[in-house]
Amino acid sequence: MLFPPLQAWIAEGLPLSTSSNEACKLYDAILTQYVKWRNDETVGGFEGCFSAIQAADPNFVMGHVITTGLELMSTASSPRLNESLASAVRRTVELATSQVLSPRERLHVKAIEHYSHGRFTKACDVWEYILVDHPTDLLALKFAHDGYFYVGAQAHLRDSVARVLPHWKPHTPLFSYLKGMYSFGLLETRAYDQAEKVAMEGLALTPDDAWSVHAVAHVYEMKAEVDKGLKFMESREKDWQVSDVLASHNYWHWALYFIEKGQYEAALQIFDSQVFRRCKTTGSMLDTVDASSMLCRLEMEGVCVQDRWRELLQVTRPHTDDHVTLFNDLHFLMVSLGAKESGTSQRLLEGLQELAKEPGDNQQHQLARTTGVSMCQALMEYDQGHYDRTVELLYPLRYRVVNIGGSDAQRDVFNQLLIHAAVKSENKHHQKLGRCLLMERDAMRPNSLLTDRLMQRALALHS
C-alpha cells in the first residue's frame, strides 16, 4: 500500500472523520460493492463489511451513513415499522451532533435523515449540493441516482451524472462505472443511440459492468430490437451474472425479449431457474417486483402461470404494510390478486388509503392520494373483470405513472394493463381508445411483435 486508506481519501478531497484505517478500507469496500452491484466474498460481502465497519470504529459517522443508507435504499424495510432501522437513523444523527465533522459529512447525514422520512427529493437535493463542491463523491452520486430512480426523475438521472463526469479522470477508481449510470439516464430520456454508445464505452473499459449491460438491454427493449437483445445478453452472460445483486434483473430483461416474441415457455424457464429462484433466496425488492411484473405480463398474454403466484406471495406478503414506495405496493398487489388472496389485497389498499389521508411530508404517501390509490383500485377492478372501470381509473393517470418510479421498461406493465382493459371493455369508446393506444405504441416502438399481437386481438374482438 503506497499510503494508508485514510490519507487516500484526504488526497481525493473527501476526508473521512475517523482515525481507523481499517474503517476507511471497509467504507471503500462497501462503496465498491454498491457501485459494482456485487457481493465481494473476499471482503465478506455487504453483510460482513457492515459488521466489520461497526467493529473497526463504532462512532464512524460515514460508516453509519453508508450502512444505514443502503438499508433504506433497498426499500425492503420501513423505518415507520422497523424500530431497528429507525434507531440506526437516530444513532447516525446523534453521532453527527456529538463530533467535529466536515460540512460534506454533515450533509450526508442530513440527506439520510430526509430519505428515512420519505422525503426522497429533498434527500437528492442535498446529495446534489454535495456534488457541486465534491463531484467525485461517488456515494453522493450513487445515492442520488437511486433516489431519482425511485421518484421517476428521468432528466435528473441523466443530468446528475453529466454534471460530474468532466471532473473524473480515466484513472480515477471506478471511473468506468459512471458510463453505465450516464447511459441509464440517457435511455430514460429516450436518447437511445447515445445511451448505447456510452454503455458500450463503459463495457470496453470494464466488460463485467452489469449496469452498463443493463443499459444496453433497456435500449434493445425500448426499440423492440429483440433478436439483438437476445444475442447481446447471451454473449455476455458470463460477464454480468457475477454481479449477483443485479443478475436477476438482467435475466428479467432477457425474459422480456422472449415475452415480446411470444416465446412464453422460454420466458417461464428463465422465471423459474433465475428470477424466482434468486428472489426467494435474496428477498431483494428489485428481484421481487421483477418476478411480480413478469407473471402479470404473462397472464395478460393468456399464459397459465399455475401455482407461481402463491409461491411468490410467500415473499411479498410480509411487506403488505411497509408502504415504502408505491412502485413496490403495486407489485405486491399484483401478487395477492394473482394468488386470489383478497384479504391481503384489501389490507394493502386500506393501509395505503389510511396513509394517504395524512401523508405529512412523505412523498410516497402524498403521491398515494393523487395517483397510487387509484392505480391499486384499477388493478383490483381488472382482476374482477371490470374493464370499463379499469380504463376510467387508469387512463387519466397515464402521464403521471412516471412519478411512481422505476424505469420505462418496468412501468410498461401499466401501459399494457390499460391497453388490455380498453380492448376487453364492453364500452365502444374504450375499444376505439385501445386501438388508438396501440397505434401510439407502434409509433414509438416500430416492429414490436407484442403490439402486433394486441392489435390483431383487438381487431378480432371488435370486428
Description:
With 463 residues, the chain is mostly helical. Among the domains are: 1-149, Alpha Horseshoe (Serine Threonine Protein Phosphatase 5, Tetratricopeptide repeat); 176-242, Serine Threonine Protein Phosphatase 5, Tetratricopeptide repeat, CATH 1.25.40. Helices cover 73% and strands 0% of the residues. The protein has 25 helices and no strands. It has helices at 5-11, 21-36, 45-56, 61-73, 83-97, 103-116, 120-133, 138-151, 154-164, 177-188, 192-205, 210-222, 226-235, 237-240, 244-261, 264-282, 285-300, 308-316, 326-338, 342-357, 363-383, 387-394, 408-424, 428-444, 449-462. α12 (210-222) packs parallel to α15 (244-261). The model has no long low-confidence stretch (mean pLDDT 96). Keywords: Repeat, TPR repeat.
